[in-house]
Structure formats: structure tokens, C-alpha cells
Amino acid sequence: MRKNTSGPRFKALLEAANISTTGFAKFWGTEAQNVHNWYTRGVPAYRMEEVSRLLSVNSEWLKTGEGTKESAHLPAASNGDTFDAQAIRGVYTVVDPNDIDLPFFKETPHTNGSGKTHVILDPDQTIRLPRAHLDQLEVRHTDAICAHMIGNSMAERIEDGSILAIDRGLTQVVDGEIYAIEHDGMLRIKYLHRMPGNGLRLRSHNSAEHPDEVFRASHIEEQRIHILGWVFWWSTLNKRRPAIPFL
Fold first, then answer.
1. Angle 180-78-231 from CA coordinates, rounded to 5°
2. d(CA 189, CA 192)
């Protein structure tokens, strides 16, 4: 097993893109000291793929310094403007003056056979939304990403398989709002409520099958819970096609 020596390369990538330690830490929803530790200890293995994709480099190169630096998976922009890594909010292309293609993130198994999952960018999929929708809600275009709803915890409001739009610029908890979180590599969509001592309450719309979960601050750190952003839009298909009368 090759040793993880990604620290210096990770630090150099941030410096080249003019991304501060504090700015990157805010993006991940963690403390600057944690990111600073990556400079010497290396990017954690469970974050390697996502960090590599966001910084547009090959994960093996980032981890070991071997192989090609450039990522072979990120699509090149074809029409319009593409924001660079300085925004650290994902890559999108302006397709039309009125529409924007947003990057799509997904929960997928680790390649190490551990059975665990993580949330990474899907380079083969984007979702197009009207620019006016984002502007109306004051969502910065470079903060917006998309993902799928997984499971029935938010039914009947957000059905399993629905497409979600997430504002990564809003990670501060407003009680009762819907947020996307990554919980030990698992993508979860929940109502969030603040609790004393920097704790969190996770609430499902389908509370009959999914009771409330309460996490203290220590649990949040131990279980690697971080808020990806506020869910501001979703698509939900009707469960059934209506029967046509008199046929």
C-alpha cells in the first residue's frame, strides 16, 4: 500500500488557486486547524477522491505524487464561462443566458472494499436550472450543486429519487429548514434544528418511520457529520398516473 504523502501537494494546489486555509475549512464545515493538519498528515483517505475532483487533479497523483497530475474525469467546458477552483464550489458551465448547468454529486461506495460510501462529484451528469431561480433566492451560481434524494425519510414532501438543488453557501442552521448533510460518507436530507452545546437535531418529514436523531457536538465530530448546504429546490414525480374516467 503506497504511503499517503498528499500534504505538500494539497497545500501547493490551494496556494496556486489562491484559496486560504480558512476559506477551504469554511467550505468543508470544519475548523481551519483540521485543514492545516492535512498539510503535514495528508488529505484523509475518505476525502481523497472528492478533494481531487474539486481541485481537478488525479487522486493517485495527489496521494502519492505518481502518475499524471491532470484528472481524466472532469469534462472540459465547451460553451460560456467556467469558474475556477478559487470559488471551490464546483464547476459549472453557462449554457444559455437564462440557464445554468449545475454539477451533480452522488453517494457511491469506496473503491477500497470497505463497504462504506462517500459523496463525490459525478463528472458525467449535470442538472440545468433557470438562472432566475437562483437569483431570486440569492444563491450564488458557484455555490449551487445537485444530488438525488435517497430513501423515503422525507416522503411525502420529497420522494425517493427526486433531484435536489443545494446551496453550499448556506450551511448555518436555520431551525426547520431542509439541509443536505454528509454523515460518515452517507448523503442525508433532513430538517435541522440547533441544540444546546452546538448539537444538532435531525428530523424527517416521514417521522413515523424515521424518528428524530440528536447529536451532541462530540458525536458530530466523531461521526464526521458536516452540512453540505441548504436544499432550495427539488423535483418530485407523482406516484401514480391518474385513471382516465369513462374508458
1. 10
2. 9
Domain 7-64: top CATH class? mainly alpha
pLDDT digit string (tens) for 79-93? 333 333 434 434 444
DSSP string, 6-68: -HHHHHHHHHHTT--HHHHHHHHTS-HHHHHHHHHH-S-GGGHHHHHHHTTB-HHHHHHS-S-
pTM exceeds cut of 0.90: no
* Domain chopping of the chain, boundaries: 7-64, 85-235
CATH number for the domain whose boundaries are 85-235? 2.10.109.10
Kindly indicate the confidence band of residue 29, based on its pLDDT and cuts at 50, 70 and 90: low
Residue 124 C-alpha cell reads as: 458525467
Asked if 7-64 and 85-235 have one fold, the answer is no
